[in-house]
Specification:
226 residues; alpha/beta; Rossmann fold; 5-stranded parallel β-sheet; two-stranded antiparallel ribbon; 8 helices; 14% strand; binds adenosine-5'-triphosphate; binds 2'-deoxyguanosine-5'-diphosphate
Length: 226
């Protein structure tokens, strides 16, 4: 039996993690696991971790590491039969270490996008909160302005995507992400992609994964943490 594939995708808000993850999931048949979606699911089903997470998100803060790992690692344990791509986790070195102790990663994708590009993109980002679907009024607009393509429900702009909140958010990302990037670099699995356009980055990611995925399909690598 060949091996399963495990990857994480990192990058500042607006760098295209969600957009690229969808393309990877579609092309390579991986599960796209989004930490933001897990958090939102836990908030709507009012789990203990979800109730706690909400108090931080309401203040515009990251969810603390121990809450995040408690929420996420059990979900990964349910995925031992699947290849997956994890989007939005880890965001801190403590999270990267927790993940490392429960499974081996093959690839860490790091998106390096100029600040001005990020600001411009997030100004135009609209989301459908129940599903996590993301639109950009220029890059991938909804079919009907202001409405989700699938449900027809209203789209919203997140408070922290507004220009005033963005610069501080991006600065904070840089500080926290640097040790995570160094961690994966030291492991020899870091692949950084720099450009202003997702459509120019995507072929390079596609080529990289084409060389990795057929070689490693199937064989569970996430150890149970229990
Ligand atoms: N790994 C994590 N560590 C801490 N908090 C997290 C993590 N992942 C998600 N969260 C919390 O959940 C919220 C929603 O996450 P999500 O990734 O959907 O959106 P985001 O912060 O707008 O990120 P991005 O703009 O990069 O897509 C975050 O703002 C944060 O409070
Ligand atoms: N103009 C432009 N917009 C882009 C490009 N790639 C992604 N976008 C849009 C889609 C979203 O509205 C926004 C952020 O993308 P995202 O995939 O949600 O990023 P992330 O926050 O998950 O990292 O930018 C791109 O290459 N050009």
């Amino acid at each position: 039996m060949s091996k399963l594939f495990r990857a994480v995708i990192m990058g500042p808000p607006g760098s295209g993690k969600g957009t690229i993850s969808e393309r990877i999931a579609h092309n390579f048949g991986l599960k796209h696991l989004s930490s933001g979606d897990f958090v939102r699911e836990n908030i709507s089903s009012k789990t203990d971790a979800g109730v706690l997470a909400k108090t931080y998100i309401n203040k515009g803060l990251l969810v603390p590491d121990h809450v995040m790992t408690r929420l996420l690692l059990p979900r990964l344990e349910e995925m031992t039969k699947y290849s997956w791509l994890l989007d939005g986790f880890p965001r801190t070195l403590a999270q990267a270490e927790a993940l490392n102790s429960s499974c081996d990663l093959d690839v860490a994708i790091n998106l390096n996008i100029p600040l001005e590009t990020l600001k411009e993109r997030l100004r135009h980002r609209w989301i459908h909160p129940p599903s996590g679907r993301v639109y950009n009024m220029c890059f991938n607009p909804p079919r009907i302005q202001g409405l989700d393509d699938i449900t027809g429900e209203a789209l919203i702009q997140q408070e922290d995507d507004r220009p005033e909140a963005l610069v501080a958010r991006l600065r904070h990302y840089k500080d926290v992400a640097k040790p995570v990037i160094d961690f994966y670099k030291a492991k020899g699995i870091l692949y950084t992609f720099s450009d202003t356009e997702t459509d120019r980055i995507w072929p390079n990611i596609n080529t990289l994964l084409s060389t990795k995925i057929p070689a490693i399909q199937s064989d569970a690598r996430c150890a149970s943490t229990r």
